[in-house]
Amino acid sequence: MAKRGPLTDIGPIFQMAYLPSDFDAALRHWTEVIGAGPFFIMENIQIAEMTYLGQPTNAVISAAWGYWGDMQIELIRAENDAPSIYTGDYAVKDRLHHVCVAVDDIDAARAALNEAGATILIEGKVGESGAVIYADAGGGPGNVIEYVKLMEGGPELFAMMREAARDWDGNEPLRRLG
């Protein structure tokens, strides 16, 4: 029997993320055609202590999160052209950009990525208690995996979003956070 890869047991995918060419059109598609939502947007996010391929970067994004059943959909808009996975070779548009796995131990995720021979693209802090790693495990652009240790309050925020989607009537498809 073949050995399973080192990334298998880190955790399940809970999010699919997209970098649309037209953010507003993508939001309309996801809410009006697919029926996902409502989406909650945070603008001008800068990950603390962010590095891209080991070098500091000041990349800024805006992101909107909504639920399609139990799957979180993230729509991302780059707000500057700083080096990151949202600019350059990894900035694939209008198709799956990356998937996300929530982890309790970011160091264990990093160790599994190293064992798999993955290239760590981005690392940074999320709030005071969280962390994030984006990696290419060999699939190239469009196949990036994000591992996030949610900051304090993160699971509750996502639970609120998921609950808002359960009986959503289509009104107020975009809601602002912080």
Oligomeric description of these chains: single chain
Q: Order of SSEs, N→C?
A: EHEEEEEEHEEEHE
Question: Which range best describes the helical content: under 10%, 10-25%, 25-40%, 40-55%, 55-70% or over 70%?
Answer: 10-25%
CATH level-four homologous superfamily name: 2,3-Dihydroxybiphenyl 1,2-Dioxygenase, domain 1
Distance between the termini: 50 Å
* Class per helix and strand makeup: alpha+beta
CATH top level assignment:
Alpha Beta
Proportion in β-strands: 35-45%
Task: Give the number of DSSP strands.
Answer: 11
Compute the number of helices. 3
What would the average pLDDT be, to the nearest integer? 95
Keywords: Dioxygenase, Lyase, Oxidoreductase
Pfam families: Glyoxalase_4
Protein name: Catechol 2,3-dioxygenase-like lactoylglutathione lyase family enzyme
GO molecular function, one term: dioxygenase activity
What report would you give on this structure?
By secondary structure, this protein is of the alpha+beta class. It has one domain (13-166): Roll (2,3-Dihydroxybiphenyl 1,2-Dioxygenase, domain 1), CATH 3.10.180. Helix content is 20%, strand content 38%. The protein is built from three helices and eleven strands; from the N terminus they run βαββββββαβββαβ. An eleven-stranded mixed β-sheet has the order 4-3-8-9-10-7-1-6-5-2-11. The chain is globular, with a radius of gyration of 16 Å. The N and C termini lie far apart (50 Å). The model has no long low-confidence stretch (mean pLDDT 95). Residues 12-150 form the VOC domain. Keywords: Dioxygenase, Lyase, Oxidoreductase. Pfam families: Glyoxalase_4.
